[in-house]
Specification:
Oligomer: heterodimer
Order of helices and strands of chain A: EHEEHE
Shape of chain B: globular
CATH class of chain A: Alpha Beta
CATH topology of chain A: Alpha-Beta Plaits
Largest sheet of chain B: 7 strands, mixed
Radius of gyration of chain A: 13 Å
CATH architecture of chain A: 2-Layer Sandwich
Order of helices and strands of chain B: EEHEEEHEEEEEHEHEHHHHH
CATH class of chain B: Alpha Beta
Number of helices of chain B: 9
Helix content of chain A: 10-25%
Largest interface: A-B, 28 and 36 residues
CATH architecture of chain B: 4-Layer Sandwich
Distance between the termini of chain A: 6 Å
Number of helices of chain A: 2
Chain lengths: 83, 280
């Protein structure tokens, strides 16, 4: 059954990029070129607050999304099974 | 001794020129503080600001620091900046960035891989480079902040930016690193990541350095001084139980294709001390 990686708690993100790096490793890549997850600092956040935003390429579903969810230290992601 | 050339991006602010130099003879300095001190010796007359990464940056967890070497009125200082910039420099295919001279007008350095654009300070550094692949160091009030959060001890970067007339540095890295035995590398990566509990810092919810899951409260102000092996690699000082273990270090270097010997590692502190003595 296909699985979807969902960004359920973006406010918990600390910007460590472990998820992006894990996804790249699954593609046997070291580096962020062609990364399927991108982590940005949200420059619109309130003064003094550091927040991060994430973008996921739909092709992420071809990877082991459970591993990506698990490597996130803050529980930003949830994995959903689809029909 | 391994013979991998070190790739240095040299930026002349006075002439608004840059070049990438490949040095075959810097292997014994490994990277980070070792490489930074040697580059300080080589560029001493030009009063350089040096950002140097080590062989583990961008490749192993808890190795997220960048050695910043400066000449503070005759005293050579080594400080360590957290955040994402070590990964960006590594993924730019560089071992160090050497910024020298003084810019006539305030300038932002927009670095993408081995290329540099000298931008007007009216531009917003946050719009330069490539999103998701860049690090931005810029003036934020009275401070110089990386990613709006990370800074260096003693405000050394503030002084360097003022003296050199720099108002921002953006580093974007888009290169990929090839590893011959990827399975072995991945296995080692996971083993080291599983040693998270050995770090001498508490996990938190603060902005974290890239490739480090800790989110600790210590990385904000960076580090100063400390173990030269850690700081040549360039690992976090709170991961010292992992990265002062010579077996782990050799495993990491070996899987990355470096061929250092025990003698090379053992002679590193003396080599660094001698280099520092020559320039102090």
């Amino acid at each position: 059954m296909p699985k979807i990686l969902k960004i359920s708690f973006p406010e918990k993100c600390v910007g460590c990029e472990m998820c992006a790096i894990e996804a790249q490793r699954q593609l046997r890549k070291i580096g962020l070129d062609g990364a399927l997850i991108r982590v940005f600092r949200n420059t619109n956040s309130k003064l003094g607050n550091i927040e991060y935003a994430l973008e996921i390429d739909p092709r992420i579903s071809s990877l082991n999304v459970d591993k990506i969810q698990k490597i996130c230290p803050k529980g930003v992601f949830e994995v959903e099974e689809t029909d | 001794m391994e013979t991998r050339p070190r790739k240095i991006l040299s930026i002349d602010l006075t002439k608004k020129e840059y070049e990438v130099k490949s040095f075959e003879d810097l292997n014994s300095y490994i990277g980070g503080v070792g490489l930074g001190f040697k580059l300080m010796e080589m560029y001493y007359d030009k009063n350089p600001l040096i950002f140097a990464v080590g062989p583990l940056n961008g490749l192993f967890p808890f190795a997220s620091k960048t050695a910043v070497v400066i000449n503070n009125d005759g005293v050579i200082e080594d400080i360590y900046l957290g955040g994402s910039i070590s990964l960006r420099i590594r993924y730019a295919g560089l071992d160090a960035i050497v910024i020298h001279g003084v810019s006539r007008e305030k300038a932002i350095l927009d670095i993408t891989n081995a290329g540099v654009s000298f931008k007007d300070p009216s531009e917003d550094p946050e719009t330069l480079g490539l999103p998701g692949k860049r690090s931005v160091i810029k003036v934020d009030g009275s401070k110089i902040l990386l990613g709006g959060y990370f800074t260096t001890p003693e405000h050394y970067l503030e002084k360097e930016f003022t003296d050199k007339n720099i108002s921002g540095i953006v580093v974007t890295g888009t290169e990929l690193i090839n590893i011959r035995d990827f399975d072995k590398y991945e296995d080692l990566y996971k083993k080291i990541l599983n040693r998270k509990d050995e770090l001498s810092v508490l996990e938190g919810t603060y902005p974290s350095c890239s490739n480090c899951p800790m989110g600790c409260g210590k990385s904000k102000t960076g580090e100063m001084g400390g173990n030269v092996l850690l700081h040549s690699l360039v690992a976090c000082q709170y991961a010292d139980r992992i990265y002062t273990d010579v077996g782990v270090v050799f495993s990491c270097l070996n899987v990355l294709g470096y061929n250092y010997t025990h003698e090379d590692i053992e002679s590193l502190p003396k080599l660094i001390e001698q280099t520092l003595r020559r320039i102090s």
